[in-house]
Amino acid sequence: MYPPELVAPMKQDLTDFGFVQLLNSQDVINAIKSDGTTLVVVNSVCGCAAGNARPGVKLAVKNSKKPDVLSTVFAGVDIEATNVAREQMMPFPPSSPSIALFKSGNLVHILERHHIEGATAEMISANLIEAFNEHC
Fold first, then answer.
1. From 42, 46, 85, 131, active-site residue
2. Which one of 11, 21, 68, 129 has the minimum C-beta count within 10 Å?
């Protein structure tokens, strides 16, 4: 578990951009199972979250087509919510960071850590925009 004061700016990086924090299992289920599309970002303290994932997601949601719900859980902090979000991402193994797009409760697109590491924010954004244009 990370100290709240350590992760607050990392959480705020997304919440300031319109992402809703999912803090417990019910929050996650309500967001994912809602009609329409939901983006879930599994945020983390690692450098690839700060340098690639968060900037890439923020670029992507500027697209004209974007998910109805923008949400986030924080690995190592929002443990219950993160575990439930990861269950919904099965059969993909848990990874932090990761970015998943759900449509009417079904996983339709995912970027795992190995897709994020070494990718630029622009590459991540382009990947997500393609998924948004198809599913949103």
1. 46
2. 68
Architecture of domain 4-131: 3-Layer(aba) Sandwich (3.40)
Question: What is the pLDDT, as a whole number, of residue 1?
Answer: 76
Q: What is the pLDDT of residues 79-103, one digit of tens each?
A: 999 999 999 999 999 999 999 999 9
Tell me if residue 48 is catalytic: yes
pTM above 0.90, yes or no: yes
Query: For the chain, which residues make up each domain, given as ranges?
Result: 4-131
31 or 4: which carries more pLDDT confidence? Answer: 31
Average pLDDT over residues 25-52: 93
Q: How far apart are CA 115 and CA 25, in angstroms?
A: 26
Helices (H), the chain: 4-15, 25-32, 47-48, 54-60, 79-88, 113-116, 121-135
Q: Give Dmax (Cα) for the chain.
A: 38
Catalytic site residue from 28, 39, 40, 48: 48
Q: Is 46 noted as a catalytic residue in this protein?
A: yes
